[in-house]
Amino acid sequence: MSVESPAQTMYTKNTRLRLRPFEPWHAVMAYTPDKPALHWLNSHSWLVLELCDGRTLTEIAGTIEQIMPDREDVLASTKGCIEDLERKGLVHASTEAGAPPAGKEVKN
What we know:
The chain contains 3 helices and 6 strands; from the N terminus they run ββββαβααβ. With 108 residues, the chain is α+β, with helices and mostly antiparallel strands. The strands form 2 sheets. A 3-stranded antiparallel β-sheet has the order 5-1-6. A hairpin with a 4-residue loop joins β3 and β4.
């Protein structure tokens, strides 16, 4: 997983992702066309997804901590959420140089 070095790894939302918000439920349905699947995201996962705009894990967790100051263990929960989003193909990780983190397979 690419979150081992949060200061260097940046996360971006999959540009081909399609989102359908369900405001009354504070949730969103995400469709990944590359590997066709539907994913339900709760409000926390949705927030993390929206913050994946080139930020690092530490920056994303810091923003969440400002929004929800009473939430405990923000960094660990954000890390777990990003790992899940990345596994599902909703976000992509890259290093500051634009290359995938070391040890991550690159497919052409």
